[in-house]
Amino acid sequence: MASRRILGGLMRRDFATSSQKQIARRKVAILGAAGGIGQPLSLLLKLNPLVSHLSLYDIAGTRGVAADISHINTRAEVEGFEGEEHLGEALKGADLVVIPAGVPRKPGMTRDDLFKINAGIVQSLCAAVAKHSPFALVNIISNPVNSTVPIAAEVFKLAGTYDPKRLFGVTTLDVIRARTFYAAKKLLPVEDVNVPVVGGHAGITILPLFSQAVPQVPISEDELVYLTKRTQDGGTEVVEAKAGKGSATLSMAYAGALFAEACLKGLNGVKDVVECSYVASSVTEIPFFSSKVQLGTDGIEKFFDLGPLSDYELQGLEKLKEELSKSIEKGQDYVHQ
């Protein structure tokens, strides 16, 4: 049996022939596949043996992306669809829909600027999902996630297809950043590190719980402030480093591929698949909140509470509540206006 390593230590796979090993057929649709996140995300999911059919959609440029990655000798069959008239065909029969569509944040662009553009994109795409693949798991990457996930929820409610267990905001990049920065600061093997990140997916709403990091090592107050702030500002760090020519596309694609794989594992009945995700939640009084959830055949199987928080984290939790609540209301109001 040949062994390959995909997406680092978090996505190891042993490939086998169909006669040796049966893997469920799963169709994944990527909406926004020709964009800065969509292209590397499509590539990474083409490499994932849990994907049997990869359906790529964008308003333009998709056929070229599909033709390009279809030459890679992995299991997934690839189709590309361009233009709104083909969106339904792209979605038909999807088990998982991943939505990275939208514009990236640029220097000087506020999250309100981003909202005005991406809100309409997410609303129209989710209306199509409700119509053509109402039982799919839906992963929202399009920013601002704090608002776009509530937009998606309202669209699905209006269509009569809303299932809160099947709608996810992808906050995995915050977790990846927290792991990476913590490991570097404390000289730990990064592949052995885990850090839960709760709250939302923007600025102070991102709350890494370094008190629950694994492995647990002493960190000073200055280190804690630095690590928290850098995790919260990771997106801005990349935007500035790219000097107006892009945002966090490659790391976001990696994060999106990791979370997509977790969803596929859950659909396939793999036990104890636990990830942080921004979802409809009663873990706090805020209606949407990122925390650890267990994934299964119907989406979310179990919510985990926040666990013991340090005084610093309790203060951060209080600080984020107002901003996160406003972002949620903004998304909900957008749909009904």
Any overview of this molecule?
The protein is α/β, with parallel strands linked by helices. It folds into 2 domains: 23-169, NAD(P)-binding Rossmann-like Domain (Rossmann fold, 3-Layer(aba) Sandwich), CATH 3.40.50; 172-336, Lactate dehydrogenase/glycoside hydrolase, family 4, C-terminal (L-2-Hydroxyisocaproate Dehydrogenase, Chain A, domain 2, Alpha-Beta Complex), CATH 3.90.110.10. It contains 10 helices and 13 strands. The chain has helices spanning 38-46, 62-70, 87-91, 111-132, 145-159, 172-186, 221-232, 234-241, 250-267, 311-336, and strands at 3-5, 12-14, 27-31, 53-58, 77-82, 96-99, 137-140, 167-169, 197-199, 206-208, 273-280, 288-296, 299-303. It has a 6-stranded parallel beta sheet with strand order 5-4-3-6-7-8, with helices on both faces. It has a 3-stranded antiparallel beta sheet with strand order 11-12-13. A two-stranded antiparallel ribbon has the order 1-2. Strand 9 (197-199) and strand 10 form a beta hairpin. Helix 5 crosses helix 10. The protein is globular and about 55 Å long. The termini are far apart. Mean pLDDT is 92; it is low at 1-21.
Short structural summary:
This protein has helices at 38-46, 62-70, 87-91, 111-132, 145-159, 172-186, 221-232, 234-241, 250-267, 311-336, and strands at 3-5, 12-14, 27-31, 53-58, 77-82, 96-99, 137-140, 167-169, 197-199, 206-208, 273-280, 288-296, 299-303. It has 337 residues and is α/β, with parallel strands linked by helices. The protein has a six-stranded parallel sheet, with helices on both faces. Strands 11-12-13 form a three-stranded antiparallel sheet. It has a two-stranded antiparallel sheet with strand order 1-2.
